[in-house]
């Protein structure tokens, strides 16, 4: 049984769209001239962010997905990152952009960047929508960050609480009642 809660809007759909456009512009500039970019979404949380981001990137990219999980249905990180579904494609010699919804303790992104670096890519960078720097246990920072947020339990725009609320078009914070 979940504790009863309400969701208060924290970042509007409009503010997200404007930031996503800005991130995509910077990414397009950084990777201009390459036809080797593979954008890798971390499932499941990044599915909406990557869908919006790639539509604003003006380059000949490929898209792939990696499914990892460290939280399951819990609100506490297990600190053990499990690869549930690997990439379909090879990334040797490719420019790789990992797209993630949120960095909290940092275990997930650190693990994924290390894993992909073992496959001889040309480079691996990360773009995250949300960053909670106050929660960090592993020192990691993405090349691109959409918003730094305080230590609130957030949902929406792909992010869940016990698998619910991923479909909210905005980022909200969970307030237990
Ligand atoms: C969430 C989120 C990030 C990770 C961030 O994933 O999507 O991948 O936790 O936390 P960390 O920095 O403390 O590692 P989750 O395991 O809930 O899977 P999901 O993406 O399928 O929701």
Characterize this entry briefly.
By secondary structure, the chain is an alpha/beta fold. The chain is built from three helices and nine strands; from the N terminus they run βαβαβββαββββ. It starts with a strand and ends with a strand.
Provide key terms for this protein.
globular; Rossmann fold; alpha/beta; 6-stranded mixed sheet; binds 1-O-pyrophosphono-5-O-phosphono-alpha-D-ribofuranose; 3 helices
Q: How does the major sheet shape up? A: 6 strands, mixed
Strand-residue proportion: 25-35%
| H/E series | EHEHEEEHEEEE
| Global morphology | globular
Counting copies of identical and different chains, the oligomeric state is: single chain
Named CATH architecture: 3-Layer(aba) Sandwich
Q: Please give the domain count.
A: 1
Report how far the terminal alpha carbons are from each other: 14 Å
User: How would you write the strand order of the largest sheet?
Assistant: 4-3-2-5-6-7
Explain this structure.
With 177 residues, the chain is an alpha/beta fold. It has a single domain (12-150), classed as Rossmann fold, CATH 3.40.50.2020. It has helices at residues 13-30, 47-54, 107-117, and strands at residues 5-11, 37-43, 62-69, 82-85, 95-103, 123-131, 144-148, 154-155, 171-176. β2 (37-43), α2 (47-54) and β3 (62-69) form a beta-alpha-beta unit. The structure holds 1-O-pyrophosphono-5-O-phosphono-alpha-D-ribofuranose (PRP). 1-O-pyrophosphono-5-O-phosphono-alpha-D-ribofuranose binds next to β2, β5 and α3.
């Amino acid at each position: 049984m979940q504790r009863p809660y309400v969701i208060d809007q924290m970042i509007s759909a409009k503010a997200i769209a404007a930031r996503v456009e800005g991130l995509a512009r910077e990414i397009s500039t950084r990777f201009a001239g390459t036809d080797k970019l593979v954008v890798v979404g971390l499932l499941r949380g990044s599915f909406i962010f990557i869908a919006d981001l790639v539509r604003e990137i003006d380059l000949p990219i490929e898209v792939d997905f990696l499914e990892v999980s460290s939280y399951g249905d819990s609100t506490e990180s297990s600190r053990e990152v499990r690869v549930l579904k690997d990439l379909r494609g090879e990334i040797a010699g490719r420019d790789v952009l990992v797209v993630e919804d949120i960095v909290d303790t940092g275990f997930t992104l650190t693990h994924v960047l290390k894993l992909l670096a073992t496959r001889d890519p040309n480079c691996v960078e990360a773009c995250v929508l949300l960053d909670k720097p106050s929660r960090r246990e592993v020192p990691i920072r993405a090349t691109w960050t959409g918003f730094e947020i305080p230590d609130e339990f957030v949902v929406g725009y792909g992010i869940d609480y016990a698998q619910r609320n991923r479909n909210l078009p905005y980022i909200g914070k969970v307030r237990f009642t």
